[in-house]
Amino acid sequence: MAVEATGPRVLVLANQKGGVGKTTTAINLAASFAAAEVNTLLIDCDPQSNATSGLGLPKDEHRLSVYDLLLGAASAEETLQATELEQLWIIPSHKNLVGANVELVGAEHRESRLKDAIAPLRDRFHFIVLDCPPALDLLTLNSLVAADAVLIPMQAEYFALEGITELLGTISRIRASFNPALEIEGVVLTMFDERTNLAQQVTAELKRFFGEKLCATTIPRNIRLAEAPSYGKPALLYDVRSRGAESYIRLAKELMSRNMPTSEQPAPDELNPQEDMENAELDKSA
């Protein structure tokens, strides 16, 4: 049974360093929430539109997108698109979104356009996941102002540790100027290889700094995660038994346990997307 929404947790996936698995995390975390029968919205705020294509939406210059939303040319309801997962929706991106950085420069309330635009949708979802560019521009600023919390994907390497300081400084400035309630949801290690000494050392350093904010779940390097976007599917629809899919399912469970009252969390038998997907495949072949 699906859980009725009582207002969403708006999570922004942010890291000013590129190539850390931010979009992969946005797609697969949102899909894992939805597979647990929790109404979820993914908003693709990156002009590269990788989250959009990663959920199977083909390029379409006539389709309404985040660009239209930010410019006030369409409502959030008009931009919603269904996905292959019953309880997952997306507001897609388009390459023309890059122009919003210029067009919004002189606009009134330019930093809160996204927050204001999605306000009418807040009662429909338990989680709203925002994927933003790996740069501090107006698109990222809008995402951080609209969010309740930041989830930081990062690799277990020393350059990533250096970059985290810059990101924390950005979050501090956003709190001071635009969004005093913005929290750090956590740090999740991606492309993780627990066999290396470096990974263990970086993990220990992050644990000392972030404490319980460091997610217990880590995301391994996994070929199925890399392959899935080319098929327009999250990993749990591409190969639900892959290590990558299973890791994101565990991450979704971890975040739900933090953010949903016990009475509202899906029952344990509703948190088994592997079984649900396999049963669906059996039904198709019957």
Please give a structural write-up.
With 286 residues, the chain is α/β, with parallel strands linked by helices. The protein has one domain: Rossmann fold (3-Layer(aba) Sandwich), CATH 3.40.50.300. It contains 13 helices and seven strands. It has helices spanning 22-35, 50-54, 66-70, 76-79, 100-103, 113-118, 138-146, 158-177, 197-210, 223-227, 235-238, 243-259, 273-285, and strands spanning 9-13, 40-44, 81-82, 88-91, 127-131, 149-155, 183-190. Strands 3-4-2-5-1-6-7 form a seven-stranded mixed sheet, sandwiched between helices. Helix 8 (158-177) links the parallel strand 6 (149-155) and strand 7 (183-190). Helix 1 (22-35) crosses helix 12 (243-259). It starts with 8 loop residues before the first strand and ends with a helix. The model is unreliable at 1-6 (pLDDT under 50).
What's the topology here?
Layout: E1 9-13, H1 22-35, E2 40-44, H2 50-54, H3 66-70, H4 76-79, E3 81-82, E4 88-91, H5 100-103, H6 113-118, E5 127-131, H7 138-146, E6 149-155, H8 158-177, E7 183-190, H9 197-210, H10 223-227, H11 235-238, H12 243-259, H13 273-285
Parallel strand pairs: 1-5, 1-6, 2-4, 2-5, 6-7
Antiparallel strand pairs: 3-4
Helix pairs in contact: 1-12
Strand content: 5-15%
Mind telling me which CATH architecture this is?
3-Layer(aba) Sandwich
Question: How does the major sheet shape up?
Answer: 7 strands, mixed
Shape annotation:
globular
Topology order in helix (H) and strand (E) letters: EHEHHHEEHHEHEHEHHHHH
CATH homologous superfamily annotation: P-loop containing nucleotide triphosphate hydrolases
Which class in CATH terms? Alpha Beta
Spatial order of the strands in the main sheet? 3-4-2-5-1-6-7
Mean pLDDT: 89
Number of domains: 1
